[in-house]
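Suppose you are handed only these lines of text.
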Amino acid sequence: MTSIKHYLQFKDFTREEYDYVFARAKWIKDKFKRYEPYHPLFDRTLVMIFEKASTRTRLSFEAGMHQLGGSAIYLNTRDSQLGRGEPVEDAGQVISRMSDIVMIRTFEQDIVERFAANSRVPVINGLTNEYHPCQILADIFTFIEHRGSIQGKTVAWIGDSNNMCNTWLQAAEVLDFNVHVSTPPGYEVEPERAGLYGTDHFEQFADPMDACRGADLVTTDVWTSMGFEAENEERMKAFADWCVDADMMAVAHKDAVFMHCLPAHRGEEVTAEVIDGPQSVVWDEAENRLHAQKALMEYLMLGRIEN
Ligand code: CP
Ligand code: NVA
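From them, the structure of the protein bound to phosphoric acid mono(formamide)ester can be written out as follows.
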């Protein structure tokens, strides 16, 4: 089972593999926009396992698999044996014998790792407490579309050092850019949990304004991620000054874009003026989940394709 390629965290791919996947995502997107059918995954089945809520991830994987000629099956904790204590190792054995690729959204990263270790088919992390690699794949594809290569650029991360932040930090190491992180005290990046090789590609700032200064991309996320709802009240107080607003965007590079993985809470982590303003690319970012993940699934199942 060692030769199967999984996508469990951003650093699972090399820079060369990302160059390939981004080029494929563009090719697949352009073809889709021309209404040209493309069915390289005819007869293949994707199983999607959700232990947390989703709109974009479910929609983009399910629609993407259909558009590539295959089919998708949705499982959740409530309606399957997953919620009744079936060992994740057993689920990996069984589900991977009936499908060609699996996507999992769950809690601890350890769950996707254990599933993948028992899977006969590629496994994709559709979000864990620690990482959200499919989102950053789409985000960087979106940045490239709008501004070109991200190499050497600066991303400002404002807010919680959560799964999105950790994945940005891994991406910075793989694709050679910098991340300026500003979190409230007590919510700082934990490099080991983020799975980083070092600290060369990020800098922590006490003041979010300082993190945004000169940034090419400003981004944030909810103050309370799924699974951490019990901390919501204390987080609302702690994060009050970490709201991306027009003043923060004003100190960023004049061509800076604003991104948010969504769903967003206007008036909490970002003002309506910013997320609905001219620098925001959040709708392209959401759409690109579809195109980027189609390229990802094609690559994991079929390897490199020359056109
Ligand atoms: N950004 C994202 O993953 O959205 P969903 O939670 O709706 O899937
Ligand atoms: N950090 C958020 C992302 C949601 C797409 C969460 O984990 O809930």
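What can we learn from it? The pocket of phosphoric acid mono(formamide)ester (ligand 1) is lined by residues 54-57, 127, 135, 261-262 (CB under 6 Å). The CA atoms of residues 173 and 200 lie 8 Å apart.
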